[in-house]
Write a structure and sequence with these properties.
alpha+beta; Uridine Diphospho-n-acetylenolpyruvylglucosamine Reductase, domain 3; Vanillyl-alcohol Oxidase, Chain A, domain 3; five-stranded antiparallel β-sheet; disordered C terminus
Length: 468
């Protein structure tokens, strides 16, 4: 079967675009998610939509699975291979096809790196706000598949708010185009949005139409540290209640601060219980007004070491420090399990305390950071997966954290997706009618269950397990 499969893939895509050596299989057997690993049967780099279509038809005929993959930075196991699967890599699809300044849109291929795209449109005074922490390596296609968020999500929203359309190959091999440059279009069902955030289970993007906005004229970036987690939480709550919408409010706890300082050596306060990094942007004097109001709130809530800057290089140092949180924490332990629990913004102080409670209760080192302005925290557990006791306690800690988030009206994921890593939590927390509807949609679009099967939820309600 495998030799027939590889030969046919080479016939479809060309010999140089198909890999099946042991070394290649290992390289594409995992993504950014710890603990999950599976070797694929082969790795294929399709060159056009017709080749993708032919591969999907071949998969239906020969009963193997196809797992789409961008840069592999995902944190929920969405691009980890499954049994009897090949990995379809889209990173070579990296062209910006069109920037339409009249309609403020851009057509891109799915392998375009997010940060590169941002820099290109900013050269002509335009702005693409979604900015995941991995923006300098992650791809637009992966962002759309996961509905990625980022530091600017509070003011500007997430990836779905900037997708106007796309061309997509369905699991059956049919090629469809949804959406377009019309700013308003309510004809028929909103099929465009179904695939956004579907984690590669409903189709493979070949072209994506993105919405752009004017680039903000100026910004002011601020930071403050606190001796009390409660004071940092109150600051966030008061800023939101004051009807100011910053472009960024980022939270770092003491563990994360120290790991970043070990990594970057930029002078972060090692004794601080928490730190906030904030930014306001826009046009004219409103930027100064909002910054001054935030600075007052930080002072009122015992903020210390308060600084603000409109210098782009100085601001970038602070934002780069925040973006390096995951990398910095990863240096502390062999295994880093980074999660994202999200709660209503008013419940953020309670959720921060619950993460600390989990660390104490299960005797674990958990760094905590995240997008405080939209209630999205990233509790990050530092363990050695070879120590079974540590691994078991980490799993119990995340059970506790997710249960507490749900009790507060929150969700098990705000931006990382469900994939394999949180599938069991989703199936326990989702309402049965909603879960059943999702299964029906998947079955309708992918009758033979060949495209990224087993991700988000099991095809059937029966209990299934994923071995790693």
């Amino acid at each position: 079967m495998q030799y027939h499969l590889v030969d046919e893939l080479k016939r479809i895509c060309g010999e140089k675009n198909v890999y099946d050596s042991p070394e290649d299989k290992i390289a594409y057997s995992y993504d950014g998610t710890p603990l999950y690993y599976k070797e694929p049967l082969a790795i294929v780099f399709p060159q056009d939509a017709d080749q993708i279509s032919r591969i999907m038809k071949f998969a239906n005929e020969s009963e193997f699975a196809v797992v789409p993959r961008g840069a592999g930075t995902g944190l929920s196991g969405g691009s980890v291979p499954v049994d009897n699967s090949i990995v379809m890599v889209m990173t070579k699809w990296n062209k910006i096809l069109e920037i339409d300044q009249s309609n403020l849109t851009a057509w891109v291929e799915p392998g375009v790196i997010t940060g590169n795209f941002q820099r290109e449109v900013e050269k002509i005074g335009l702005f693409y706000p979604p900015d995941p922490g991995s923006l300098n390596v992650c791809t637009i296609g992966g962002n759309v598949a996961e509905n990625a968020g980022g530091l600017r999500g509070l003011k500007y929203g997430v990836t779905k708010n900037y997708v106007m359309g796309y061309e997509m190959v369905l699991p059956t091999g049919d090629v469809l185009k949804f959406g377009g440059k019309n700013y308003k279009d309510v004809a028929g069902y909103n099929l465009r949005d179904i695939a956004i955030g579907s984690e590669g289970t409903l189709g493979i993007f070949t072209k994506i139409l993105l919405r752009l906005i004017p680039l903000p004229q100026r910004s002011i970036t601020m930071k403050a540290h606190f001796n009390s987690l409660l004071d940092s939480g109150r600051s966030v709550a008061e800023i939101i209640a004051s009807h100011i919408v910053p472009s960024m409010i980022e939270f770092l706890d003491n563990t994360t601060i120290n790991c970043i300082e070990d990594y970057t050596k930029i002078g972060l306060p090692r004794n601080a219980a928490a730190m906030l990094i904030l930014e306001v942007d826009g046009r004219g004097d409103i930027v100064d007004f909002e910054a001054n109001k935030i600075l007052e709130i930080l002072k009122t809530n015992n903020g210390q070491g308060i600084q603000h800057t409109s210098n782009a290089d100085e601001a970038n140092i602070l934002k780069t420090a925040r973006r390096s949180a995951f990398s910095a924490l990863a240096r502390r332990a062999p295994t880093v399990i980074l999660e994202d629990a999200t709660v209503p913004r008013s419940e953020l102080p309670v959720m921060i305390e619950k993460v600390q409670e989990a660390a104490r209760k299960f005797d674990l080192m958990i760094g905590n950071f995240g997008h405080a302005g939209d209630g999205n925290l990233h509790p990050t557990c530092l363990i050695d997966e070879r120590n079974q006791s540590e691994l078991d306690r980490a799993m119990k800690a995340f059970d506790f954290i997710f249960e507490e988030a749900i009790k507060l009206g929150g969700t098990i994921t705000g931006e990382h997706g469900t994939g394999l890593a949180k599938k069991q939590f989703f199936e326990k927390s989702a309402e049965i009618p909603a879960l059943d509807l999702m299964r029906k949609i998947k079955s309708s679009v992918d009758p033979n269950n060949v495209l990224n099967p087993g991700k988000i939820f099991s095809r059937s309600p029966k209990c299934e397990s994923y071995k790693f």
